[in-house]
Amino acid sequence: MTRARPAPQRPSATDNLTKPDRFSPLPAWMERLCTLSAQIRGGIRLGGILFWVPLSVGFEACLLVVPGTAKIRWTRVIWGGLCKLLGVNIRVVGKRVGTVGGLKARQRGERPVIYISNHCSWLDVPILGTLLPSVFVAKGDIENWPVMGLVSKIGRTIFVSRQRSTTGRERDEMIRRMVGGDNLILFPEGTSSDGSRVLPFMSAFFAIAKLPKLRDGMDPALLPVSYEPGMTPLIQPISISYDKLEGLPVQRLRRPVFSWYGDMDLGPHLWQMVQWKSLQAAVILHEPLDPELFPSRKALAQAAWHAVAQGAAELRQNEPGTIQPGRFDAAELPCNKPGATKRLLDRVASVFASYRQRR
Predict the structure, then answer these.
(1) Which helix (H) or strand (E) holds 299?
(2) pLDDT tens-digit profile of 73-111?
(3) Which of 9, 58, 250, 275 fits as disulfide partner to 38, beta carbons 3.0 to 4.6 Å?
(4) Cα dihedral angle (29, 33, 35, 39), rounded to 10 degrees?
(5) At a CB cut-off of 8 Å and minimum separation 6, what does 175 contact?
(6) In 3D, which of 176, 157, 174, 290 has the Cα closest to residue 233?
(7) What is the Cα gyration radius of the chain?
(8) 26 Cβ contact partners less than 8 Å away, ≥ 6 residues apart
């Protein structure tokens, strides 16, 4: 009587990242040497991160009391330095809409901008933070995290609970921040994914750009916070994907190196990432959308999703990436010329991230 053989277990994507190939052509001693080299590289990078983050964030805490846009520009330097320590290069297609912002910019009539992006990793935050002078809108759970909560508060992150009882208050807070000079970065998927597709956008996230219209005779006080005429924020869709790992195109089995979703633990994911020599993210900055030109927030959300999904699909196929057309009036786009000191801070952020831009 023959014994039944156990069914073979299918290896997971994580196993493929942490275990050497079974049929590796390298001798065992060379494999161990490569593993040791990667661990040393990861340890050095983590040490640099532990030094850079408290130092740079502590300096930003001092800038919070300084008027102007210095704190906004310095935040880009923080994220750019973190990208450099992680070994992340950024390839940019397109042009950012909007300025750094600030109260004076709003007084000059420069419209705020809401940047809408897909979300597949915690790495999206430092990458977009390097490219975009904005503040993030994050889920309320992060506010209570031991270290990230404090760092996020110093970075002036806006926390939302996504509960109906607090929706109005959180919407008003985001509008106040934009009226006061901030631009926002939103992930309207509501969660991160494995990067293989872009999840549908929640139209509720677009309520701050497409305010409900009051009918004739209704009390304007029903909208406690609103925009001045002509100051409705623009929407810029953004597609982000991770297309290179140590100079080679990223295939489906390698996406877990970047993607952080589900019940993945942040610590092990970070440790695996810092052991790779180099990583590359591709970002497409699509043409903006003017909410005033759309009949409803659902139509606005669908247009933004289409642009983001189309761009992300091209990047996943290792294509250069195409800028999706928008719907806007070119005369309404905010534009200004910063001074020498401000240009220097912007340049430092760009150099730290080693990002290349193609328009």
Answers:
(1) helix 297-316
(2) 899 999 999 999 999 999 999 999 988 888 888 888 889
(3) 275
(4) 150
(5) 208, 225, 226, 227
(6) 290
(7) 22
(8) 34
Burial 114-147 (b: 16+ CB within 10 A, else e): bbbbbbbbbbbbbbbbbbbbbbbbbeeeebeeee
Question: 3-class DSSP state for residue 201?
Answer: coil
Say how many CA atoms lie within 13 Å of 17 toward its Cβ.
23
* Joined tokens for residue 59: 């300096």
Nearest CA among 117, 256, 102, 246 for reference residue 177: 102
The span from the CA of 184 to the CA of 174, in Å, is 8
Residue 188 Cα to chain centre, angstroms = 11
Q: Give residues with Cβ within 8 angstroms of 224, minimum separation 6.
A: 172
Distance (Å, whole) CA 286 – CA 295? 21
For 226-256, b/e burial (b = at least 16 CB within 10 A) is ebeeeebbbbbbbbbbbbbbeeeebeeebbb
Q: Which amino acid is at 55?
A: L
Interhelix angle 70-86/28-63, nearest 10 degrees? 170
Please write the tens of the pLDDT for every residue from 256-286. Answer: 888 877 777 878 888 988 999 999 999 999 9
